[in-house]
Amino acid sequence: MENIALIESFSEFKDDKLIDRVMLMAILEEVFRSTLKKRFGSDDNFDIIINPDKGDLEIWRNRVVVADGEVEDENSEISLEEARRIEPDFEVGEDVSEEVKLIDLGRRSILALRQNLISKIHEHDNTNIYKQFKDLEGELYNAEVHHIRHRAIILLDDEGNEIIMPKDKQIPSDFFRKGENVRGIIESVELKGNKPAIIMSRTSPLFLEKLFESEIPEVFDGLITVKKVVRIPGEKAKVAVDSYDDRIDPVGACVGMKGSRIHGIVRELGNENIDVINFTNNLQLYITRALSPAKITSIKINDENKTAEVMLKPEEVSKAIGRGGHNIRLAGQLTGYEIDVYREGVEEDVELSEFSDEIEDWVIAEFSKIGLDTAKSILEQDVEDLVRRTDLEEETIADVMRILREEFE
C-alpha cells in the first residue's frame, strides 16, 4: 500500500499539467529506474509493473540463488540461506523475485525521486507547450494582459501559458490594461533552457494579412489572394490583392461598402491607414497603383538597377511622397523598386546635391529621406511641416530655404 499511496500523491501533478495518466506512469517508470540504478548500480534485473487505471506500481528485484559464501554481485545474486528465508524450498540456480518497498530505498532516495519526477513532468509539459505553439507560428492568437512591464507586456492564454509581446512588437498607439484581451500573431517560439519563450507581434505585416483572412470571407475562402503586405505600424500600410475569378473585384470586396469591411481592421491597428490595391504583373501599372492616391504622368523603369523614375504634376508630388515619406517608401517596398519622383514641366529646377558646398551633406540626406531632392521641391513646402517631417531644426530649414531662393533670384 505504501507504493500506491506515494503514486497517488505523485499523480496530483496530473491535475495541473498537460499530461494524461498513461504518460504520467511512463515518466514514473523512467524516474524509478533512474533511482534504482543509483541505489543498486543497475536496473536491468528489476521489473516495474504499473497499473495506469489504479495508479498502482510494484517493483520486483530478480536475483539468482548461489551457494552460501559465493555471492559476488549482491544486486543480481542471493545466497541460498537468504533465499530460504523468503521461501524454504529454494535451490541453487533458481530465480528469486522479491518486492522492493519504497521505504527500503531510503528517505533521501524518495525525496530525490520526487524532485526528479517534478522535473520530468515540467520538462514534458514545456515540450508539449513548445510543440503546440510552434505549430501556431504565423497564426492569429488571443491572450489576456497579465502584467505590464516597461519593455514588454506579459499575456496569459486560457490555459495559463505565458506569452510575451515586446515593446517593439506593439503598435505605437497600443495602450493595454491588465485583464484586457489582446490579439496578435505568434511570431516565434524558442526553447530557452527547458522553458518555451512565446513571442506575439502586432507590428508584423503577417498580422495584417491574417486579419484580412479573419475579417474578409473571400480571402478566408481563397477567392481573393493577399499577394503582399507592407506596413509602417500604426501609420500606413499597403496591401496588394488579386483574384483568379474575373467576376470578383478584389479591392471592392476587401474594402466593402463605404469601407465597412476594412473598418474593423483599421480600428484593430490603431487607425492605421490601409491602401488596398489590385495586384498586376504589369510593372508600370503596379507602380502607378502603389503610388496611389497620386496620379502619375509617366514612368521610366530601369530593371537592371530596380529603379523607377516617376513624372508627376507639381500638385501631385506631395501625395506621392505622403506624410513623412510613408507613401513613397511603402510603394517601393511593395513593388521592389526604388522610386524617384520628378515634377513635370519644371526644367529650371536644380538638384539639391548641387548645393553641397553651401549645405551640409547630412542636411541634404534628411530632405532626401522624405523624397525632397530638388531646390523647388523644398521651396514649395511649409517650414513647420518640414520641421515635423524631418529631424532638422526650424533655423536650419530657414537657412536652407534662404540659400535656395538666392539661386532663383
Automatic annotation (TrEMBL):
InterPro entries: KH_dom (IPR004087), KH_dom-like_a/b (IPR015946), KH_NusA_2nd (IPR058582), KH_sf_prok-type (IPR009019), NA-bd_OB-fold (IPR012340), NusA_N_sf (IPR036555), TF_NusA (IPR010213), TF_NusA_bacterial (IPR030842). Keywords: Cytoplasm, RNA-binding, Transcription, Transcription antitermination, Transcription regulation, Transcription termination. The keyword RNA-binding applies. Its main location: cytoplasm. SUPFAM superfamilies: Nucleic acid-binding proteins, Prokaryotic type KH domain (KH-domain type II), Transcription factor NusA, N-terminal domain. Pfam families: KH_NusA_1st (PF13184), KH_NusA_2nd (PF26594), NusA_N (PF08529). One of its GO terms (biological process) is transcription antitermination. The keyword Cytoplasm applies. GO terms for molecular function: DNA-binding transcription factor activity; RNA binding. GO terms for cellular component: cytosol. It is found in: Cytoplasm. Residues 233-306, 307-384 form the K Homology domain. Monomer. Binds directly to the core enzyme of the DNA-dependent RNA polymerase and to nascent RNA. Belongs to the NusA family. Participates in both transcription termination and antitermination. This is Transcription termination/antitermination protein NusA. The lineage of its organism: Bacteria, Pseudomonadati, Bacteroidota, Flavobacteriia, Flavobacteriales.
